[in-house]
Amino acid sequence: MDFGKxxxxxGVDFSLPPDNPFTGQTLHRLDNTGSGQISCFVGPPIWAxxxxxxxxxxxxxxxxxxxxxxxxQFNTIELNVTHYxxxxxxxxxxxxxxxxxxxxxxxxxxxxxxxxxQLKGIEHLSREFTDxxxxxxxxxxxxxxxxxxxxxxxxxxxxxxxxxxLPEGFPLAVEFRHPDWFSHKVIWQKTLEMLREYGxxxxxxxVAGRRDVLHMSLTTPIVTLRFVGHELHPTDFTRVDAWVxxxxxxxxxxxxTAYIFVHCGExxxxxxxxxxxxxxxxxxxxxxxxxxxxxxxAVQGSLF
Length: 304
Description:
By secondary structure, the protein is α/β, with parallel strands linked by helices.
């Protein structure tokens, strides 16, 4: 993930900002309406990584079977492939058949909708995408709409019209990137109110070079977090620790579900960072998530 990437972390303040007051209002408003069950889904952003063969995939694993093995190690994925192409019915069926019970796919909206057309004149494409994704059935987690970098506060009405044409109850979280969303507090408040009205959530990104996108604003009792680590740098772990404590507070206040997507440089080390996330969530939030089984990779000639 290149968005907000920095090579030098020495000047970055990685401390978590305080909650936007809207978050407390959202959780307090909804904390008595749920079932009392809390859930958490944590995973890296890809399954097609050959470096994981012999590490979290069997040494004999073929690329066509990576998804099958991935879903036996993690319980969700940020599905970026849908950003580039709307999946066919056959593809959806293949994903469903490969995935383990309880697994959740979290598809990213196609860039032709979000970036090329800027949410305008996309009703047919939107319907094609939602119809396809709903084929995931119980394996559908949330979807996330990454707005283009030029999509600013002047297009708030365009976003509202887009939300209005979605199927009722369709799961969605919106990722804002233009700085104006966070610098214009009145408009941001209005945006959060609109998202809550339509049952849409927000995406937060914890990334070194754009701390403004870590807006700490929840509009539903579901958090969608894109966490960008730095190849197991010490700050990766202290940042996870801080997040786990914040999530514990949110769970206590009424948060129902968390989707956490763990990026880590080239993602070779993403399983290790994801495992740390899961261990800390289990320890501090009372969860019982299955941690990935990471095997040390054999080094050729190491027996001699």
